[in-house]
Amino acid sequence: QVQLVESGGGLVQAGGSLRLSCAASGRTLSSYTVGWFRQAPGEEREFVASISWSGAYTYYADSVKGRFTISRDNGNDTVYLQMNSVKPEDTAIYYCAGRTTGWGPLGSLSYLGAYDYWGQGTRVTVSS
């Protein structure tokens, strides 16, 4: 079983940048599709981005497309979420998740149930 640990959250001003990391322990993350999700106060957890095991394929929510970039370094067993031009509405707890069943139909990648392992989250606060 793989354990996922997010880091890199914090307080950032609107228009600024932040890079989140998702590291694995227990088992390698390199064979998993990995997604980032977020949950704002009082809201449901929502999909942000996903990346295939090789990094060749990515998929983004419309709300972050063009501002956020998901990437991975399988040598270091880490997946990143580069957040640029952040907005106050990006304020949330960000979670990474691992999917063992590979890169599936794009529509499936945005569902929480498509992922098997979850981290504890890292908080991102964007001030206006």
What does the model show?
The protein has 128 residues and is mainly beta. It is 0% helix and 48% strand. It has no helices and eleven strands. It has strands spanning 3-7, 10-13, 18-25, 33-39, 46-51, 58-60, 68-73, 78-83, 92-99, 117-118, 122-127. Strands 2, 4, 5, 6, 9, 10 and 11 form a seven-stranded mixed beta sheet that branches.
In short:
The chain is an all-beta fold.
Number of discrete helical segments: 0
> How would you characterize the largest beta sheet?
7 strands, mixed
Low-confidence stretches: none
SSE order: EEEEEEEEEEE
- Give a count of the beta strands, DSSP E runs of length 2 or more: 11
Distance between the termini: 40 Å
Q: Mean of the pLDDT scores?
A: 95
Q: Looking at the structure, what is the overall shape?
A: globular
Radius of gyration, CA atoms, in whole angstroms:
13 Å
Which structural class best describes the helix and strand composition? mainly beta
* Content of β-strand: over 45%
* Helical residues, percent: under 10%
